[in-house]
Design a protein that fits this description.
With 281 residues, the protein is α/β, with parallel strands linked by helices. The protein is 20% helix and 27% strand. A hairpin with a 4-residue loop joins strand 14 and strand 15.
Length: 281
């Protein structure tokens, strides 16, 4: 079993045996529509996403594609442009992959009619590939995913922000690799699922309730494949405050069960830039 980023792209490759699955997140196809409503007219950037993905395919040579949510941009509906661009995006890749999978994100309302019939929609609570659990991040993962050593999510669009000596801001996409506080994770999930604590140890309650051996020790947050949208700076002063976890989006991060201060940050080319608590804006 192998899991590694496809440098220098915001894409992850999972190899299990001879099978290779390419994982990307947060395409946000149709993001140009809200701008046009404000009088800012940007041509469709979907062809650029297709071109970038083809570069990833040429390098990684995967068999399957898994999109971790937010295929489209509008949340509860589908705009006219999305009815055109979403199916065209997948049709352009039809011969490139053997299987296509989508885990719906919070922007994927009414997504199913837009997808070609060969694209399989998976549960929003995520799936596992070997020892890796994958979900979008806008909701809690299923209890079964906690039997995986590693969890992978999108949703956050993580970036870091720096200032150069002249005061100009520099923003870069980053991978985030963080340790998981198992007790806090399990306690938060039990509370979410209204499971009463029968004994003091939350892990023991969880394993009895769901028949799952808790093994999760790390979380990887994948950068957004669509880099036109920017992202959430993870190293700003707001995040560094005492209630820092509340500044992050998604219930897993907001619960405080992920040790973000000591999370490792990597640029898309693989450069390790330090731990979050050390990388100040």
């Amino acid at each position: 079993m192998m899991i590694k980023p496809v440098q220098p792209f915001p894409a992850l490759l999972i190899k299990r045996g001879k099978r290779k699955t390419l994982v990307i997140a947060d395409l946000h196809i149709g993001w140009e529509v809200p701008l046009s409503e404000e009088g800012i007219h940007v041509p469709s950037q979907t062809p650029k996403l297709q071109q970038k993905l083809e570069e990833v395919i040429a390098k990684a040579k995967p068999h399957d594609l898994l999109v971790l949510g937010d295929v489209k941009h509008t949340i509860a509906k589908a705009e006219i442009e999305e009815w055109k661009d979403v199916p065209e995006f997948f049709e352009s890749l039809k011969e490139k992959f053997q299987n296509f999978y989508v885990i719906p994100g919070n922007h994927d309302g009414n997504l199913e009619p837009l997808l070609p019939e060969y694209v399989e929609i998976l549960p929003s609570t995520g799936i596992r590939i070997g020892d890796v659990g994958l979900f979008h991040g806008h909701t809690w993962p299923s209890p079964e995913l906690l039997s995986c050593k590693t969890l992978v999510m999108g949703h956050l669009h993580p970036v870091v922000v720096f200032r150069d000596p002249l005061g100009f801001k520099i923003t870069s996409q980053v991978w985030v690799k963080a340790k998981v506080d198992q007790n806090r994770f399990v306690s938060s999930l039990l509370k979410r699922m209204n499971v009463k604590m029968k004994v003091k140890c939350p892990i023991e309650v969880f394993e009895m309730e769901f028949g799952v051996k808790v093994r999760t020790s790390e979380l990887i947050i994948i950068p957004a494949f669509n880099d036109f949208l920017g992202g959430q700076p993870v190293n700003t002063a707001r995040v560094a405050r005492e209630n820092k976890y509340k500044e992050f989006i998604g219930p897993v991060l907001r619960s405080g069960c992920i040790n973000m201060d000591f999370s490792e940050l990597y640029l898309l080319d693989g450069t390790f830039i330090g731990k979050l608590g050390q990388v100040k804006f």
